[in-house]
Specification:
mainly alpha, two-stranded antiparallel ribbon, single chain, cytoskeleton, coiled coil, 72% helix
């Protein structure tokens, strides 16, 4: 039920006139007459509707009423009073509800105002941060681009350095293999000489002679390289110092083109062939060493370049870090509004909150509780460390006493030892030197045995290396033959396929010709034709 302002005013007037002499019926009748006198100019407001069956019948105004009329009048007054009480109670309840809703709305309005103000303040803070970030954006982008370029350059240099290290390792392995082959050739030469060969010095000088050789020349076009020239350009007169012929027992002139008398021609030819192989290996070794030296220089230059690139990269990262720190410092310098309640402020001076809160630290309750808990933990750890220090101090005092006791025991034992040496040797002797002298003989015997075993192992290794070299050569020859046979088999298979295709084509041609002839003879009526 809704009530207008006029109804509420009339209710207040009726409440004020309750104690006067006029009765309730007269007040209601007067109110009704006043409402009727207002006319129909104004639009009627919503008033409580009284059903027709509840409307009181016309009670005559005559003061000479009968007993029945008096009872009817009393019943009507009671009914109207009950209606009035109900209406007043409903109106009071509606007013209470209205006041409560109004208070709730006022409270919600205050909360919304607070949220709106906080949103405005946050918006202002975010806008200031946006302006600050835009201010640093260009510098940050340029530094980031420079950092990315330095990182790409560093990756490129690292990849080149790794590739160069891989090539160096491969070159070292190739050189090691060539050196092993050279050792194998020398071992083969020594094995071919045998024992007590009177031409051993001469053949050794022929084998180790250094000569200048004509290098391979390349033909124009797509032709292959020419073979090494067999002619020697010029003989060198310098020899290895340890192989010079002043103290040599060989009296024959050094002419590697002529086999000396009484010398095995096959052995002389083998020596020349081994020398050619040795010279080939030395040329390959020289080339590989030159390549290795070039790779080392390239590796050193790349390593220096990598250091420079790393320094540039660290400088770029440092510049970017300085920019981020400056940006964070300016972001921290922005004013941020933090709403606090009075009980949340624990910074007091002389029992009161100071007027300025410039030096106040604002933090959440959880970190504060964590710090307080950490204080308690540190207190416990401090007590524990004090207890450990006290125990360590007691232990230190005990160890000092033990050390003094041990020193006294050592002095007694030294005196006892000197007495025993005087009784046994008649003088003081250095026991360490005595133990060393007694142990040297066993050590020398062990070293001699180790050298003998090492020599035997080296000979065994050389023998097996020779076998491996021969097996590799044989495997290469077998592989070459197998490759030739595979290529021959492929060509034969291709010819076979071509011949089969031709044979199939001729057979189809013959069958089709016979079919046509048969159809012409039978007129297409036979089952074969169909």
């Amino acid at each position: 039920m809704h009530y207008t302002r006029d109804m509420l005013v009339r209710l207040q007037t009726l409440r004020a006139q309750k104690g006067q002499e006029k009765g309730l019926l007269e007040l209601l009748s007067q109110e009704t007459e006043d409402r009727e006198d207002r006319g129909t100019a104004n639009a009627p407001e919503h008033t409580p509707h009284i059903p027709e069956d509840e409307q009181s019948p016309h009670i005559p105004e005559d003061h000479n009423l009968t007993q029945l009329e008096e009872e009817m009048r009393s019943a009507e007054e009671i009914r109207l009073l009950s209606m009035q009480d109900n209406l007043l109670r409903k109106m009071e309840q509606a007013v209470k509800y209205f006041d409560a809703d109004l208070k709730l709305l006022r409270h919600e309005k205050l909360e919304l105002d607070v949220h709106i103000k906080m949103a405005d303040l946050q918006h202002i803070t975010l806008f200031e941060e946006l302006l600050l970030l835009k201010e640093f954006e260009k510098r940050e982008n340029s530094l980031q681009e420079r950092l990315n370029s330095r990182m790409e350059e560093d990756d490129l240099v690292r990849s080149k350095l790794e590739e160069c290290e891989l090539q160096l390792e491969m070159k070292r392995r190739d050189i090691a293999k060539l050196q092993e082959q050279e050792k194998a050739i020398t071992a083969t030469f020594l094995a071919s000489l045998g024992e007590s060969n009177k031409f051993a010095d001469f053949l050794t000088k022929v084998f180790k002679k250094k000569i200048k050789r004509v290098k391979k020349k390349e033909k124009t076009g797509d032709e292959e390289e020419q073979e090494d020239s067999d002619e020697e350009s010029e003989e060198e007169s310098d020899w290895d110092e340890d192989e010079d012929g002043e103290g040599s027992e060989c009296s024959y002139p050094l002419d590697d083109s002529v086999c000396p008398p009484n010398c095995d021609p096959d052995l002389f030819e083998v020596t020349l062939q081994l020398r050619e192989r040795r010279l080939d290996l030395e040329e390959l070794l020289a080339d590989e060493r030159k390549s290795l030296e070039a790779l080392r220089k390239e590796h050193d230059s790349l390593a220096k370049k990598e250091k420079i690139v790393l320094n540039n990269l660290e400088a770029a990262e440092g510049d970017l870090e300085l920019l981020n720190r400056e940006k964070q410092r300016k972001l921290n310098a922005l004013d941020v509004v933090v709403p606090l309640r009075l009980h949340q402020i624990e910074y007091v001076s002389n029992g009161a909150v100071p007027g300025k809160l410039d030096q106040v630290l604002v933090l959440n309750r959880a970190p504060l509780a964590g710090l307080q808990e950490r204080i308690r933990q540190l207190q416990v750890e401090k007590n524990h460390q004090k207890e450990r220090y006290r125990q360590a101090r007691q232990q230190h005092i005990q160890l000092i006493h033990d050390c003094k006791d041990l020193e006294a025991s050592i002095q007694q034992l030294e005196v006892r030892c000197e007495q025993l040496m005087m009784m046994k040797f008649g003088k003081l002797v250095d026991l360490e030197a005595l133990q060393t002298l007694s142990g040297n003989r066993n050590l020398e015997e062990m070293r001699h045995g180790a050298r003998v075993r090492e020599a035997a192992f080296n000979q065994e290794i050389k023998r097996w290396e020779d076998k491996v070299t021969e097996a590799k050569m044989a495997m290469m020859e077998v592989t070459k033959q197998h490759t030739e046979r595979l290529s021959r088999m492929g060509s034969l298979l291709a010819e076979k396929k071509e011949l089969e295709d031709k044979l199939n084509y001729r057979q189809r041609s013959i069958v089709s010709t016979k079919s046509c002839r048969l159809c012409l003879r039978c007129g297409g009526t036979s089952s074969l034709c169909r």
